[in-house]
Amino acid sequence: MRVLLFTGKGGVGKTTIAAATAVHAARSGVKTLVVSADAAHSLADCLDRTLGSEPVEVEPGLSAVHVDARARGERSWRALQEYLIGVLDTLGVDPIAAEELTVLPGAEEVLALLEVRDLVTAGDHDLVVVDCAPSAETLRLLALPEALSRYLELSLPVERRVLRAMAAGARAVRGEGVVPRPRDHVVEAAERLHAELSGVREVLAGPSTSVRLVLTPEALVIAEARRTLTALALYGYGVDGVVANRLVPADGDDVWRTGWARAQALRLAEAEPSFAPAPMLRAGYAAGEPIGPEALAVLAETLYGPTGTAAAQEVLAPPDLAGRLRVERDGEEFLLVVPVPAAEREAMSLARVGDDLCVQVAGHRRALSLPSALRRCVVTGARLREGELRVRFRPDPALWRAP
Ligand SMILES: Nc1ncnc2c1ncn2[C@@H]1O[C@H](COP(=O)(O)OP(=O)(O)OP(=O)(O)O)[C@@H](O)[C@H]1O
Ligand SMILES: [Mg+2]
Fold this sequence. Notes:
The chain is an alpha/beta fold. Helix content is 46%, strand content 23%. It is built from 13 helices and 15 strands. α5 (107-121) packs across α7 (184-204).
C-alpha cells in the first residue's frame, strides 16, 4: 500500500495535482483512493463529482472521499486538551514543552488525521493519494503524533498513579459505591488517543509514505516550499518529489508569454538544487481549468508520461528513504544525522534538554527523543554540511557507569 501526501502553499494546485495523480494511477491499473483532508474540500469541484464521507467510485479503479471530522466528534478532543494543559501545569513541565503544546492543532484536524489512517489501514486500495491543507497547517498536523505522544508518555504514568492513589483513598474513607473517580475517563481517552496517534505516525511516517510538494515558479512560493521541505525532514517525513505547476508554455512568438516562460525557467533552475535529491516534475499552465477526470488525465500525462504498466510500477514503488534521520557510529562516538535540506546556518539552533535534542530550523522546532545510547553521551559538536546536520555524541564515562 503506497501513500502519497500532496501539500504546498495555498492556491498552487495541490488539489488539482493530487487528483490528476490519482486519475493517472487508476488509468494505469492501480486501485486508487483520493482523499481530501483539507476542510475546504475542493476535490469534488476538481473531479466534477459529488463526494461524501464514504468513498464513491469516480471511474473504474478510482474512488474519492472527503474526510468528515465531525462524524468522529465523540472523541472529545477539547476535554483532553484542557486536561493535558492541567497535567503539564501540575507536573511543572518545562516551558519549552508547554509552548509546543499551545501550537497543537484543533480537534477537527486531529480527527481528520485519524480518519485518513483508517482509510489507509482498511487496505482496500493499492494507492492512497491525500490532498492536504496548505503547508503550514499540514506541518502542524504531521508534527502532532510525535509531539502529543511525548506529552502523554511524560504525564500519564504519574497522573495514573496519583488517580489510583486518590481513588483508593476515597474508597477507604467513603466506602464502596460512592467513589468519585476524578477525570478517570479523561485518562482513558488520553491513553486511547495516544495509541491512535502512534498508529497515525506509523502510517504517515512509514516506509511506503512520501510527501510531494507542489509549487509555482514564484519567489515567495519557492521560499515557502523550501521551508516546508526542511520542516518535513525534521519531523521525519520524506519528500520524494516536487511538482512545479502552472508553467507558461514557451512556444509561440508572443513576447509577453516567452518573457514569462524564460523568467519561470530561470527561477526553477535556480531552485531545483535545493530540493535534490527529490526530482522536480513540471506541469504546464493548461488553456483552461483542469476540471473532471479527462482534463486531469491530460495534465497528468504531461507530468508522468503515458499511463500503463510502467507508470503503475513507478507510482507503487517504495519511496527512496535515503537521507532520513539516522544514527551513525564513528569509533567510540556516535553521529546523529538529521537531514535538513535547504537549511541556512543562521536559522538553526540546537539545545540539549534532558533526554531530548531540540533542533530548531527555519522556525520549526523538533524535540528528537534520543536513543538510550545517546542519552549517556555528551554532545561535543555539530556541523551543517550538504543538507545534513551532524551532531556528535561522545560517551560520558560517568554516565556509562551509572546503574
Ligand atoms: N496546471 C494548471 N493549469 C491551469 N489551471 C490550473 C493548473 N493547476 C491548477 N489550476 C487551477 O488553479 C486553481 C487552484 O488550484 P487548486 O485548487 O488545485 O489549488 P490548491 O493548492 O489545492 O488550493 P488551496 O490551497 O485553496 O487548496 C484552480 O482553479 C485550478 O483549476
Ligand atoms: Mg486544495
